[in-house]
Structures are given as structure tokens and as C-alpha cells.
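Sample intake sheet
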Amino acid sequence: MESIIIGIAGGTGSGKSTFTKRLKKQFGDEVAVIYYDNYYRKQEDIPFEVRQKVNYDHPDSLETNLLLEHLKLLKEGHAIDGPVYDYSQHNRSEKTVCVEPSPIILVEGILLLVDERVRDMLDIKIFVDADADERILRRIARDTKERGRDMENIMEQYLTTVKPMHNLYVQPTRAMADIVVNSGKNRVAADIVICKMQSILEEKKKQAAENEETRTGTSDAVHQRLLPYLPFLDEIDEERRQQFEEYFLSAPDWLLSAIQVQEYGKNTVFIREGEPANMIYMVGKGSVKAVDYRIYGIVFDFMQFEDVFAFGGMEVVQGTELYQTTLETITPCTIAKIPRSTFSQWMGRDIRALKLETKNIARYLMEQSKRGRAYLFLQGSNRFTLYLVDAYSKYQKNGKLELRRSRQELADSTGLSVKTIDRSLKKLADNGLITREGSRFVMSQEQYEELNIIVSELIDRN
């Protein structure tokens, strides 16, 4: 089920944050919070003196389109990097905060109910009301203590923008709310909203349990059906097994009966560029790489595959008779093979399978294009840095990448010499961008983020 989004609006100093924090405290990680104030626009190109005079109580001061995009992503189950606003500088900070999707998302902001598009995304709209005198006193206390502003600046802003904009934009949205709360400290109102949220969470948990029961039953049936044809399913991790089960979910018996499972040793070429593409290969156990991809006469591994992929499927969809690249095993592999004619017949009859294969091909082509362009421009240690960033994004486990490949394998993967690999590893380790652990090198998430910035700058410069 999608997340439920609850919007909390109201005038400055009305107690919105107090109300929001009370709800968050009650539910902990089951609730995510977004503050609309963090979506004030970037103003690094405007002098500080001018930024001080901007009307921050007008809807145009906020980047609402970004908020809408983030709410949509969260509702669909994706995490976001939310902006952070620096009130002392009247500008958006360089920092971001990761907001994970949650069953309930609270969005708080003075002008939250002004934009119709935002209102349409809110499942529950709350307006926190309070007496004007009470609100200005709270604002003075907050801005002097938390935002580093002096009394003169606070009063000038209140009289010139805050109060007029409240009357023009904020107060009219009171009528658009589903619930009006008299003060953010109203415990009775908070308890009523908490009861509603508890009801929503219980319903979501119930629905999730029912969906899991249905999925598990379906998955078990698919697994038992595929096992005679793909016996390695019981020997691979759950994520990979689920990928196979999704891929062959609608496969007919005649397609499954045509599958041949074969063992391949390490460093075995099983597809060669330019040869007839008469067989489809799917790696059940082990990993493989694409090789012989040449730029300026350099040979290197331009892609490694860990996920389930139908090698030769692209040639079928494109109507190409010859394989487009060479594929070689990195480790001993168990590979399922399907004759091209049978696979092609399946793709022609099963639109679900064709869409899935087309999606996989599109991802492959995008990765190939992106990596090829980058390798075209980067040389030496810069190319190896790109390789590490790419490897981390694909193969890290729990925020950590371990380099298990030999110097020669790293050289083959990048088209660099072993000597250049050694120099690059030493330079990166000396600069704290990778860490030596015995005979191995590892990269943490923090080191990856630093390297990623370096690579981005290199690519932009080229």
C-alpha cells in the first residue's frame, strides 16, 4: 500500500512543530517528517543583504515543484535526499537529509495548503490555529534562540511580510483543512489524530500481511514449478531466486522443457562477438563479464553482470543474427541455456515477458553508453577511480566494497597496466579514499561519496 501523507499547516508560531513532534514521538520510525521550510529556494547568487529582504512568507519563495516530486517518490516507496535550509544565512545549505519512505509521512509548513497540487497529494489536512499575540511571542522566542536573529530584524519582517502574507495566504487555507486544531499544545486534538494514525497503521500492517501471504503462496507455487527445470534455484540467494521466478513467471511448459543447464569453468568464453546468436544464456550461479570492448585499441571489461540477465535476448528483440559482444565467466558458473527459436517464440506470444526483457535491455544499453563515454575521456588513475565508483555502486554490501580481484584482473578490467593499478591504489590509500586491510583494499560509503564527487568533476570537465 502507498504511504499516507498528512499535511500540517498554520500561521507562524501557532505550534505546528510542537504538534508534529508529538505525533512523530508517538510513532517513531513508522512516521517520516518533511518540513516545507527546507524547500526555500537556493539564493547563493544573491548578496546576503538582499537575501535578508526577500519575502519568505510568499508562496513563490518556496520550491514547491521539488516538494511535489519528493512526496511522489516517497509515496511510491523511494527514499529522497531532502534539502536543508540555513536560516542564519537565508539560503539553502549544501547538506541534505535522507528521508526514508514510511507508512505515514508528515509534512509541516506555514504555506502548505496554499498550492492546490500539494493539497491534492495530502490524505489528511490539518490546520493549527492560535491567537495572533501568542504566535508573535513564540516567533520572537524561536528566531532569537534558534535562528540567530535580532529583535529589530524579527519585528521588521513580521510587520512587512509575515502579518500581511498570513492574512492574504495562510488564514484562508484554514477553511481548506479537514481538521482545525486550537493550538499545537492541544493534547486532546493530538490524541484524536494519533488514534486516526494508529488505525491507518494497523490497516496497513493487516494489508501487508495479507499481501505477503498471497505473495508467498504464489512464489512457492512458481518455485515448485520451475525447480525441475532450474535445479540451482535451491542453491542461490533469495534475491537472485526471486529474479528467476519473476522472469519465468508466465513461461509456458514448452519453453521450460527446452531449458538446458550446463556447468562452465572459470575464465570460459561462452559467447563470442560475431558468432551466430543461436542460444540464450542465463547465469544461475556465478558471475560473468563482457570483454573485448575497445576504445582507442584498449581492451577491458566494460561490464560485469550480477543480476539475472538473458544474454542473447537483446539480439532476439533487435532481430540481430550475430552476438554483439563477448562474454566470459569470472567464476565457475551454472548457466541455463534456451534455443533462440524457442525463446523468440515465447517473446512473440508473451507481452509480459517481452516487456521485462525490453526493460533489461534498456538498462544494459544505458550502462554501456554511460561507461563507454566515461572511459573514452578518462585515462590512468582517473579511469581506475571511475572503475572503483562503478564497482561500489554495483557490488557494495552493507555500505562496504571489498576489492577481491587481483592486480592483473583490475588491469584487464580497466585497460590499464598493473603498474598503473599499483600506483593508483597507493595514491588512493595515502589520500584516505580507500583503506588497506591486510592484503585487501576496502571502500566505505564515506570514501565512495568523496570519490564520486571527484569522478563527477572529472567527467564534467571533459
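Comment: The longest strand covers residues 91-99. Residues 187-226 form the longest helix (40 residues).
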